Amino acid sequence: MAESVRIIWTPALLDYDFGAGHPMSPLRLELTMDLARSLGLLTAPGVRVVGVEPASVAELRTVHDAAYVAAVMAASAGEDVEPAFGLGTEDDPVFPGMHEAAARIVAGSLAGAVAVWSGEAVHAVNITGGMHHAMPGAASGFCVYNDAAVAIRRLLADGAERVAYVDVDAHHGDGVEHIFWDDPRVLTVSVHESGRTLFPGTGHGLDIGGLGAEGTAVNVALPAGTGDAGWLRAIDAVVPAVVRGFAPDMIVSQHGCDAHALDPLANLKVSVDAQRRVAELLHGLAHEVAGGRWLALGGGGYAVVEVVPRAWSHLIAIAGHIPLDPETPLPASWSADVAERWGRTPPELMTDGASLAFGHWRDGYDPADDVDRAIRGAREAVFPHLGLDPQHD
Description:
By secondary structure, the chain is of the alpha/beta class. It has a single domain, classed as Arginase, Chain A. Helix content is 35%, strand content 11%. The chain contains eleven helices and eight strands. Helix 1 crosses helix 9 and helix 4 packs parallel to helix 5. The longest helix is centred in the first third of the chain and has 20 residues, at 98-117. The protein is globular and about 55 Å long. The relative contact order is 0.14. Pathway: Ketone degradation; acetoin degradation. Keywords: Acetoin catabolism. It comes from Pengzhenrongella sicca. InterPro entries: AcuC, HDACs, His_deacetylse_dom, His_deacetylse_dom_sf, Ureohydrolase_dom_sf.
């Protein structure tokens, strides 16, 4: 019998470390897995935790240019590389063993995809994954190798006819979209803060895919300051319809939690409760349209103590079919350890106490509202290509 969820984890994944002071601290992963363990999520029936070794060069080259992989390997070994590869920047500083650390993250997403596609697991989670900015020939935005894209390429090679990628990180999922821009077999959906106010500056609602793949890139670019009501309204108005219309064989989702109000790098105002609601939505869609086949990845998220461990523990719990009551207290032992080791006081509960009320798109459109204009633009640009009615579906 297939396990409920395959969790990809080994302490070696903490080696993806750009150094002291960098926002992409491996501490956020360590704290998340410690919290999930303390909540009993990793030892629940149907949950299996597995480690991985780094992906091979051949696997990386299914997405990345040979010259770029060689450059990462050279930089990882201490050699100088050309600036064109995006390495050695403030966002992507070079560190010893970088190639192996980044390739291990890719292997985690690959292992999860294969486990789900083969039927060994119903779902899989790799919270270290979701490196959605990495391009075929360059590092970008804290991302060295694009694990999501490599996993999707493997699914297509193994027989998937259509894969839906849904990205709810605050930042546009530009790397994954770029890689599959011309591929009608892959739907990329990104709900993000507008590029007018946030890196990488892309993801306009009129960007809908390349020639022959029109409608398979979906972008909902939200104004800075959007909170739970607008964020949930936008996702509800676009994501279920386009995923159902595309009818994928599998869903791959990226759950960067940097849309949270406390995140220091973005300008959205979303709660842990709303992020939990969207994880539930994607879980339900996987069961509805893709036979349950779902690979969930991490991504951004830089409120290391207050947000990331709770958001991704909820994700693990939902994928394991053991959802947590939002009012669940954080285990005293975990909170005490955080206070002792890091001098930080975590929240008391797994909830922010948000109401999650929002107006459904079918109940009316406000042309003066920036969120509604973003929703309408995306629906009108994409829905007809998927056989959907932007006015009603």
